[in-house]
Structures are given as structure tokens and as C-alpha cells.
Design goal:
Serine Threonine Protein Phosphatase 5, Tetratricopeptide repeat; mainly alpha; 18 helices; about 65% helix
Length: about 400
């Protein structure tokens, strides 16, 4: 068996296939390790592009009848007795078979292999980390992923190493509450992989991995920006880089999420000059892009939060079309109210009404503004939200003052 194998670089099941020795295997393995598919395949490896194309049964028919071929067939089609054919395999192949069986639920526990090295040790470690997470042992998962990433890196499987480090970084950010450590882990992962972008002819895993790493680092930096606002610029740079990979056509979910987070970063940046206020315009554009994906029927919660952010941003968007922006803001709030139940979410409705009343006041529609604000005050009072009541009282005072000024 040629080493290193491009294990874990490609999607399942192709990512668990083993390339048998033969003419051209070393060259193909070298390309696949870098996330590149060769333009021409040796005959004994034609099962790989077939598997990548999604036809597992046809790929299984193309593998050899030796132990590696039986292993590949079992990965591709599984089924009763499929793994009996690798009973006489060496320890490395047995370990890979154990990982594959664990991945599809045929084994309760991942394999252990003290003799495994390089990319095989990394694949085994990845499965062991998954098992650790299933039993709630975050510390063991983090330790195992770190060791697995180092093993892959030492073998020259940089995409696999970066992928393992990416998973570790996300765990550090989301579950361990260590955003600074997550940033450092992303930095180390990004140094391992080239920046390759998918084109129409080939699929490059590093492109998506590159984008995912930048999103993870952006979210970690966003958390750190609470105490260090200077990091917000780096957040926007990471998300802008990710959006070069995650397009609306090919990755709509990631595209919308990146745009939503990008807008939030711009909106919370300190505004120290007139030029800085242009960032509100960029935020509005990003929110509109996210709302092309987020719809109340498909993403009700994400749609509601993004729509609310857009409506709020439009109120403060510097523009010669201020009245038009305010009018749009009022209508966006109304759409939100159509999807909110004051019985189930009185505070949410109160916040929408308060913002809508504020926009109406700026438009000079004072009677409607009073009506919305009074209703918001009632709901805040009902929920014992003293801060909300105080905010609405201040908005009502502003409306009354503006109304007097307009009348005078």
C-alpha cells in the first residue's frame, strides 16, 4: 500500500478509499493529497473518479479482488458480510476498516492501533475524537484531534491535518469557550494549505476548508472584539475572504451566514468619522444579500434576526433618501410583527414596536408613532422590563417634542 494515502481529503466514501500500488499510483496520490484530481487516471485507479461521481456500486465493480480491493468494495457498498473479506488484512488496513465500520454505525467503538502512523494514525484519531465527543469528553477530543493533526502533517497530508485542526478550532471556540486558542489553531491550519478556489472542471477541497477556517476565525475574533474592538476589522477581512469561496449559487447557507456576520461586525464598529458611517451602507448591502437566502418559510429565526438588523440599520443609514429608508424600515418591522405572537413573545414584539415607533417618529407620522410606542410600553411593563419602559418613555418624549416643533 502506497504511503501516504489521501485519506480524509475527499468526501465519504471516496475519502476512505485506499489506492492500490501500481503504475502512476504515487503521482495520483501526490495530487489527491493536495486536493487536486488528475486529468488522466491509471486503469487500476478508475474506481476513484467513479466513486467521486457518486456511483458507489459501479466503483465497487471496478476494484480489484485482493484484500485492498475487498476493503474498498466494503467501504463503497457495505452490507452483510462485506467486511469479512478484510479479516486477513494487515494492521493498518484493519484499523481503517474499523474506522469505516464505526463511521457507519457497525461498531460501537472506534479502533485503537498503537502501531499506526502518519495519515492512518490521523484517521484513527479522528474517529476516537468523535467517540470522545459522543461521551461528552471534550478535553480528550481536543487532545486527540491535536495529535491526529500533527500525525497527518508529519506524513505530508496537509489538507487532512488542516481539516482536523479546523474541527479542533471550532470546538475550542464553540464548546471550550477559548476563542483566542481557536484563532491560534486556525492560524496554524491555514499555514498548511494552499488557497485554491473551485472551478467548473475540478473540485478542490482546500477551497471550502479555506472558507470554513476563515469563518471560524472570524467568529472567534468577534467574541474577542467585545474587549478589543480593534479586532472587528480583522473579522470583516476574514468574512470577506470566506465569501470568495461561499457563493450564493453554490453555498447559499454559508453565503447568508457570512453576510449576516459581516453586517453585524460593521454595525458595531465605533463610528468616529463620516467615512466610517459608510460602513452602515455596506452592512445594509450584506443584510439584503443574506435575506435573499433567509426567508420566513425556510429560516424563520434567522430571517427574523436579519430582518430586524436591516430595519434598524436603515434608520441610521446616512443617505439623501433618508425618508425612503425610514419608510422601508417601518414596513420591515410590520412584516416582523406579522410573524410574531405577542402572547408567546411579548418582549420580542415590544422591541419591534419600539423600533417601529422610533422610525415613524422620524418620518413625522406622530400619531402612529405614539400608538406603537404606547403598545410597546404596555408589553415592557407586562414583562417587568424597566429598562425597556425607560427607553420607550424617552422615545415618546422625543416624539412629543418633534410634534410640537412641527406644529410650531
Amino acid at each position: 500500500m502506497h504511503r501516504p494515502q489521501p485519506l480524509g481529503v475527499w468526501p465519504w466514501p471516496a475519502g476512505m478509499l485506499v489506492l492500490p500500488d501500481g503504475p502512476g499510483t504515487a503521482e495520483v496520490a501526490g495530487l489527491m493529497l493536495r486536493g487536486i484530481l488528475p486529468e488522466a487516471w491509471p486503469d487500476h485507479l478508475r474506481f476513484v473518479p467513479t466513486a467521486l461521481g457518486g456511483d458507489a456500486a459501479a466503483a465497487a465493480a471496478q476494484v480489484g479482488d485482493d484484500v485492498i480491493g475487498r476493503y474498498n468494495a466494503a467501504v463503497l457498498i457495505g452490507g452483510d458480510g462485506a467486511w469479512d473479506g478484510v479479516a486477513d488484512a494487515d494492521e493498518d488496513l484493519q484499523a481503517l476498516a474499523g474506522v469505516a465500520m464505526f463511521s457507519v454505525g457497525l461498531l460501537d467503538d472506534p479502533p485503537t492501533s498503537d502501531s499506526a502512523t502518519g495519515e492512518i494514525a490521523a484517521i484513527v484519531g479522528s474517529a476516537q475524537a468523535s467517540a470522545a465527543l459522543e461521551r461528552g469528553d471534550l478535553e480528550a477530543a481536543l487532545e486527540t484531534l491535536g495529535a491526529a493533526g500533527e500525525a497527518a502533517s508529519s506524513a505530508g497530508s496537509m489538507i487532512l491535518a488542516a481539516s482536523l485542526f479546523a474541527t479542533r478550532a471550532e470546538l475550542l471556540r464553540e464548546q471550550a469557550g477559548q476563542p483566542q486558542a481557536a484563532v491560534a489553531q486556525v492560524d496554524s491550519a491555514l499555514r498548511l494549505i494552499p488557497r485554491l478556489i473551485a472551478d467548473e472542471e475540478r473540485f478542490y477541497p482546500p477551497a471550502e476548508l479555506w472558507g470554513e477556517l476563515h469563518v471560524t476565525r472570524a467568529l472567534a475574533r468577534q467574541e474577542l472584539a467585545t474587549d478589543n474592538p480593534g479586532l472587528l476589522l480583522a473579522v470583516t477581512q476574514d468574512l470577506t475572504e470566506a465569501l470568495k469561496v461561499f457563493t450564493e449559487e453554490n453555498h447559499p447557507e454559508q453565503f447568508a451566514a457570512c453576510n449576516s456576520h459581516l453586517a453585524l461586525a460593521y454595525l458595531v464598529m465605533p463610528m468616529s468619522s463620516e467615512g466610517d458611517r459608510l460602513r452602515v451602507g455596506v452592512a445594509v448591502t450584506s443584510l439584503r444579500a443574506a435575506l435573499r437566502v433567509y426567508q420566513p418559510q425556510t429560516h424563520p429565526d434567522l430571517w427574523a434576526s436579519t430582518q430586524m438588523n436591516l430595519a434598524n440599520a436603515l434608520q441610521y443609514l446616512p443617505s439623501v433618501h433618508q425618508e425612503q429608508n425610514l419608510d422601508e424600515s417601518v414596513h420591515l418591522y410590520e412584516q416582523l410583527l406579522d410573524h410574531r405572537d405577542p402572547q408567546r413573545d411579548p418582549l420580542g414584539v415590544a422591541r419591534i414596536l419600539a423600533n417601529q415607533g422610533n422610525a415613524l417618529g422620524h418620518l413625522g407620522v406622530f400619531s402612529d408613532a405614539r400608538e406603537k410606542l404606547i403598545r410597546a410600553r404596555e408589553l415592557f411593563t407586562q414583562c417587568d422590563d424597566d429598562d425597556g419602559v425607560a427607553t420607550v418613555e424617552e422615545l415618546l418624549a422625543n416624539v412629543e417634542q418633534a410634534a410640537l416643533g412641527a406644529a410650531g
